[in-house]
Structure formats: C-alpha cells, structure tokens
Amino acid sequence: MLSLGITGSLGAGKSAAADYFKQLGATVYDADREAKKILRNSPELQGVVIQTFGDQVLDDSGGLDFKRLGRVAFTTPEEQARLNGLIHPHVVQAILEQITQAGKAAAKLFVVDAPLLFEAHLELLLDLTLVVNSREDLRIRRAMERGNLSEIEIRERMKLQLPNAEKVARANIVV
Q1: Count of CB atoms situated within 10 Å of the CB of 61
Q2: What are the residues facing 129 on neighbouring strands?
Q3: Which residue of 20, 71, 109, 165 lies most exposed, with the fewest beta carbons within 10 A?
Q4: Strand-by-strand arrangement of the 128-131 sheet
C-alpha cells in the first residue's frame, strides 16, 4: 500500500485533491477534521487544553468553547504550538491506526489530508507528500467562502503556517 500526504496553505485546494483520490478508491484521512473530533470526544484532552489556556477558552457553562480556543490558539506561533503539542500526538496515533486498518483491508492508496503535514512531521509516516499550491488571493477567497473566518483571521492563520515556498521545497509532488 502506498501512503500519500496532501498539504497546502489554507484555501489551497487540499480537500479537493483528497476528494479526487477518494473518487479513485483511496482511503482518505482528513487530519484536521479528525483532530477536531478527537478533541470534541475526549473530556480528558479538553481538560488539559483548558488547563493550558485557562478561562479564556471556556464557554458560559465552564466547558471548552472551540471558537474561543481558535481565537486564542491561532494568534501567535507559540500559542499554536502549545495547542498542536497537545493534539498532534493523538492525531499521529490515529493515523497509524488508520494506516494499519487500511493495510489489512488491502487498500492500494492511503491519503492523509493535513494542513500541518510538515509542521507535525507526518511526512515521516508516509511514502510521498503532495503540496497543492495556488495564489494567495485565490486561497483567501476560497477560505472566505466557507464563511467561518474573517479575512483578517484567515490572513493571521496563514502567517502561522509554514510558508508555501518551504512546503513546495519539501514536497515530492507539487500541483
């Protein structure tokens, strides 16, 4: 079985590329979606996140407010690294489990769609990496069409990601 990591900046088209491979029969793991699911389904991990970030990430009932967490964690590289340090080990474990399952199911291609592929060192788990590259104005427009972030928030999050040029330089394939 071949394993492929797909990455790119916010709004670059990673999901479209992953969907293409899924249509061809690949098993696709959406790391961003699964990381959110892991956090939502783990009261223990939520507790650690609350301990790490404090009251500023709590909702009115004292639980973790995911929007507030996003506003806090995506403000500086240090804050993002704190959150990623808590969540990434769980995501890596889940990916390893999914790779094993896909292999047992005789999958021919296992794809990991991960915006922070290189930042989380996921490339070390995979055979090849593919970067989806597109112009910044197009990426911003696409991200804004989702409707969950403002242009300012999008630009701030883009600043926290590995620069496109570095992703391209580290990838096996660039689209």
Answers
A1: 6
A2: 5
A3: 165
A4: 27-30, 109-113, 2-7, 128-131, 173-174
pLDDT tens-place string over residues 104-137: 999 999 999 999 999 999 999 999 999 999 998 9
Dihedral-angle region of residue 91 (phi above 0 means left; psi in -120 to 50 means alpha; beta otherwise): alpha
CA 12, CA 168: separation in Å to the nearest integer? 12
pLDDT of residue 157: 83
State how far Cα 93 lies from the chain centre: 14
Task: Summarize pLDDT for 161-172 with one digit per residue, the tens.
Answer: 889 899 999 999
Give yes or no for a contact between 111 and 31, defined as CB atoms under 8 angstroms apart: no
Question: Hey, what amino acid is at 3?
Answer: S
